[in-house]
Design a protein that fits this description.
Length: 470
RNA sequence: GGCGACGUAGCAAAGUGGUAAUGCAGCGGUCUGCAAAACCGCCAUUCGCGGGUUCGAUUCCCGCCGUCGCCUCCA
């Protein structure tokens, strides 16, 4: 059975067949680095990391390209706000994001191209579109002529008529049609700009991905990925640009992940992650508190295409889930390598591997794959209790490690009980200590305070009770 | 309003035209000085609501309700 993969373009599950046998060309839209990366960005990166790891597990060689849109309106606006140089800002943030991806155990892409390093190819691309009359110059801008692209709208399921009738905005008079989009934007004073046949300017959004995809992967690729918020207009426009230039189908399989959404645990209402609500969860802040596997487990627990619900409670649940997985890797206590228990374990390991593959073949059903791993964990713990050890036990643990690694889980034993909120624990000790003081058991009470001090936690007794600080 | 997706136990979340994985939480038991961990068992007659197709639907179709994403330049 081959891998089945859901294609957003056809809205169907399709058998996965690559252009070139054994080789996968995969382009994933990365981020526009204009602010700290949050866990929504991490989700997308992990989704495609897992897809890539599984394809490699199945024997494919994967060429994986992830771009940085390091110059665009948002970057420029943010830089102006901060009084900084736009390219310096986006460069720093991009490097920071790469470091965080490493921390999240995301395998490095084959190449991470940036817009600012792809300007010649972008200019060439645009010129090609102009030559073929798919684009026109207007002032210092260049626009894509949507009307000339017969199947425009095929990815997002919109017709040009619909889009035009829905136009509520004032139309730029230089554009032939409101649906046309910018390929090249003339530079305003003070903005980063590159020379071009149409005057100094910078690439529009959309064009860079088409150009980088062709540059690094060729005219046709197997998988193009990104968040489903990119379906329109970004990916629609990429198809228009690429196919108009080459005359060939651009991407075989469009793969889109669902959005991460915050759910307020009290109200059960979905909240937008926004600075004004003060609820942005950055990758950095998550990793301060939890092992990277915890976030990965959250992502793996549901379908990559569905919305992913997140809140602090869910994070804590998944930290316990990781603890559970890790119990499977605790050492054996016995040493029996044969007998019914050892056989049952070997069988459980084989079954886990099979169920894992079946689940992953079915459009990367990571939740199902994970369920297989949990069953293997129970089998391991059972076998350990039954005295199984030695090579038999090690082999089954090896299977667990191997399959977990395909999902990108590190299963680092040091992650156990790490980073949990210490506040309730300290409060508890304070409460116990108050009882001791009440009972005039001062030696014990002082011991609690001294030992906590040794851990870097200071207690301060006052008239209103005990306060603590780190 | 248009296009798309989703709605399954306290929480998270798979899944299938034939009667509901898995994890967390909870409950009972084994083990333990007592706990913890582990192990064994229990925990949705039911899959947003209402119709329809079918011998049979959570799974297919229609409608409704709810949630989310997107709806070009500019913001």
């Amino acid at each position: 059975m081959s891998i089945q993969i859901y294609n957003s373009l056809t809205r169907r599950l399709e058998p996965f067949e690559t252009l070139e046998p054994g080789v996968v060309r995969m382009y994933v839209c990365g981020v526009t680095p204009y602010d700290d990366a949050h866990i929504g960005h991490a989700m997308s990166a992990i989704v495609f990391d897992v897809i890539r790891r599984y394809l490699e597990y199945r024997g494919y060689t994967v060429h994986h390209v992830v771009n940085f849109t390091d110059v665009d309106d948002k970057v420029i606006a943010r830089a102006e706000q901060l009084g900084r140089d736009p390219l310096q800002l986006s460069g720093e943030l991009a490097d920071e994001f790469l470091a965080q991806l490493r921390a999240l155990n995301v395998q490095p892409a084959t190449v991470y191209p940036r817009v600012t390093q792809t300007i010649p190819e972008i200019r060439e691309f645009i010129q090609g579109l102009i030559d073929r009359e798919y684009a026109y110059v207007a002032g210092g801008d260049v626009y894509f002529r949507v009307a000339r692209d017969a199947d425009y709208g095929k990815l997002s399921g919109r017709s040009l008529d619909e889009m035009l009738s829905g136009t509520r905005f004032e139309v730029d008079p230089r554009k032939e049609s409101p649906a046309d989009f910018a390929l090249w934007k003339a530079a305003k004073p003070g903005e980063p700009a590159w020379p071009s046949p149409w005057g100094p300017g910078r690439p529009g959004w959309h064009i860079e991905c088409s150009a980088m995809s062709i540059k690094h992967l060729g005219e046709q690729i197997d998988i193009h990925g990104g968040g489903n918020d990119l379906v329109f207009p970004h990916h629609e426009n990429e198809i228009a640009q690429s196919e108009s230039l080459t005359g060939k189908p651009f991407t075989r399989y469009w793969v889109h992940n669902g959005m991460l959404q915050l759910v307020n645990p009290a109200t059960r209402q979905v909240e937008k992650m926004s600075k004004s609500l003060g609820n942005v969860v950055t990758i950095a802040s998550f990793l301060e508190q939890y092992d990277p596997d915890v976030f990965r487990l959250i992502v793996l627990g549901s379908s990559y295409r569905s919305p992913l619900t997140y809140n602090a409670e869910i994070a804590a649940d998944h930290a316990r889930k990781l603890d559970r997985l890790l119990t499977g890797l605790l050492p054996a206590v016995g040493s029996s390598e044969q007998g019914p228990a050892a056989e049952a374990l070997a069988q459980a390991a084989a079954q886990a591997r099979q169920r894992f593959g079946e689940a992953m073949d079915n459009d990367f059903n990571t939740a199902g794959a994970l369920a297989a791993l949990f069953d293997l964990v129970r089998a391991l713990n059972s076998a350990r209790d039954a005295g199984v050890g030695g090579a038999s036990f090690a082999a089954a643990q090896g299977t667990l490690r191997e399959l977990a690694a395909v999902l990108g889980l590190r299963l680092d034993p040091a992650a156990r009980a790490r980073g949990q909120e210490i506040e309730p624990l300290v409060e508890l000790l304070i409460e116990v200590r108050a009882e001791l003081r009440q009972a005039r058991q001062f030696a014990l009470a002082d011991m609690v305070r001294d030992r906590l001090a040794g851990l870097g936690i200071t207690l301060e007794d006052g008239p209103q009770g005990t306060r603590w600080k780190r």
